[in-house]
Write a structure and sequence with these properties.
Helix 1 runs parallel beside helix 3. It is built from five helices and 16 strands. The longest helix has 16 residues. The chain has two domains: about 110 residues, 3-Layer(aba) Sandwich (Rossmann fold), CATH 3.40.50.10330; about 140 residues, Probable inorganic polyphosphate/atp-NAD kinase, domain 2 (Tumour Suppressor Smad4). By secondary structure, the protein is α/β, with parallel strands linked by helices. It binds NADP nicotinamide-adenine-dinucleotide phosphate. NADP nicotinamide-adenine-dinucleotide phosphate binds next to helix 2 and helix 4.
C-alpha cells in the first residue's frame, strides 16, 4: 500500500509525521508522494482541506484518513496516540490479513466560473463563498435557469453536506448528513426591506439541480473555495451543482456523523 502524509506544519504535526513515516516503514508501507492509495492528513479539518486540494486531480483513486492534533474533527478522527493502531490496521489491510475496511464517500460541489477574462472550474469539499470586497454584493440567483431572486448583502455561501458543519453552520444553515447528495445555499447578511427582498432561508438543492449566481454590477468580489481566496473583478457568473466526483475516506472503525456533531457542538 502506498501512502502520503500531509501535516499542518506546526511542531506537533511535524513530529507526528516523522513518527508516522518511521512506523510505516517498519510495517512495510511504501511512501509515494505522486500516486498514493491513502493520504493521511495530520492537523485538523483545515489540514484535510489542504490535502484534498493537493490531490484534487487524483480524487477518484485516493482515500483519505485524518489524524487530529487538537480537538476531534469532522474529517480528522484519529488521535495522535492512536497512530500505531492506525498503522497496524493499514499494514494488515496491505497484507490482506483483515477484511477490507469500509470506504465512505462524501459529495462535493463542482463550480464553473465565468469571467470576462476567461472561464475555469473548481471542486470544493466544504463550500464556496462569494463576498463583496468594497460594498454590497448584487447578484441574481437562478435555479435551473429560472430567476429565483436578486440578492443584495454581504455574500452567498454554497456548502456541501460535510461542509454544512463549518461556515454554513455559522450562517444558520442546516446540518446535512453527508449521505445526502445535495448542496446548500445560505445567505450572508442579506438586505431585506420594502425595496429589496430575498428568501432569507437556506435552500437545499438536490443533485440534479443547478444554481447560477450572476454578478449584477461592476464589483470587486472575493470567491473563496474552501481555504483558497480568488479575487474577482470581472466575474460574470458562478454556476454550481453537486459534483459527479466524490471524496473517499477509509474507515478502519465507525465514525458516525451525528456523534461528531454532538461531540463538536454539544458535549
Ligand atoms: P481557519 O479559519 O483556520 O479554520 C476555520 C475552522 O473551521 C477551524 O476550526 C476548522 O477546524 C473548522 N472546519 C474546517 N472544516 C470544517 C468542517 N467540515 N466542519 C466543521 N468545522 C470545520 O480556516 P481553514 O483551516 O483554512 O478552514 C477553512 C474553512 O474555514 C472554510 O472551509 C470554512 O468552512 C471555515 N470558515 C468558517 C467561518 C465561520 O464559521 N464564520 C468563516 C470563514 C471560514 P480545525 O481547527 O480542525 O482545522
Amino acid at each position: 500500500m502506498k501512502y502520503f502524509v500531509l501535516d499542518r506544519g506546526d511542531e506537533i504535526s511535524v513530529e507526528l509525521s516523522e513518527l508516522f513515516h518511521r512506523l510505516a516503514a517498519e510495517n512495510g508501507l511504501e511512501l509515494d508522494e505522486k500516486s498514493p492509495d491513502i493520504v493521511v492528513s495530520i492537523g485538523g479539518d483545515g489540514t484535510m482541506l489542504h490535502a484534498f486540494h493537493t490531490f484534487i486531480d487524483q480524487i477518484p483513486s485516493i482515500a483519505f484518513v485524518g489524524i487530529h492534533t487538537g480537538h476531534l474533527g469532522f474529517y480528522a478522527d484519529w488521535k495522535a496516540d492512536e497512530i500505531p493502531e492506525l498503522i497496524h490496521m493499514m499494514s494488515n489491510q496491505a497484507k490482506g490479513e483483515t477484511i477490507e475496511p469500509r470506504v465512505v464517500q462524501y459529495p462535493l460541489i463542482h463550480l464553473e466560473i465565468c469571467k470576462r477574462s476567461g472561464n475555469s472550474s473548481y471542486i470544493c469539499l466544504n463550500e464556496f463563498t462569494l463576498k463583496g470586497v468594497d460594498g454590497t454584493v448584487v447578484a441574481q440567483v437562478d435555479i435551473n435557469d429560472q430567476m429565483f431572486e436578486m440578492f443584495r448583502g454581504d455574500g452567498i455561501c454554497v456548502s456541501t453536506p460535510s461542509g454544512s458543519t463549518a461556515y454554513n453552520k455559522s450562517l444558520g444553515g442546516a446540518m446535512l448528513h453527508p449521505s445526502i447528495e445535495a448542496l446548500q445555499v445560505t445567505e450572508i447578511a442579506s438586505i431585506n426591506n420594502r425595496v429589496f427582498r430575498t428568501l432569507g432561508s437556506p435552500l437545499v438543492l438536490p443533485k440534479h439541480h443547478r444554481c447560477d449566481i450572476y454578478s449584477r454590477k461592476e464589483q470587486n468580489l472575493l470567491l473563496t473555495i474552501d481555504h483558497v481566496n480568488l479575487p474577482m473583478d470581472d466575474l460574470i457568473s458562478v454556476s454550481c451543482q453537486v459534483a459527479e466526483r466524490k471524496i473517499s475516506f477509509v474507515r478502519y472503525r465507525p465514525f458516525p456523523f451525528w456523534t461528531r456533531v454532538r461531540n463538536a457542538f454539544l458535549d
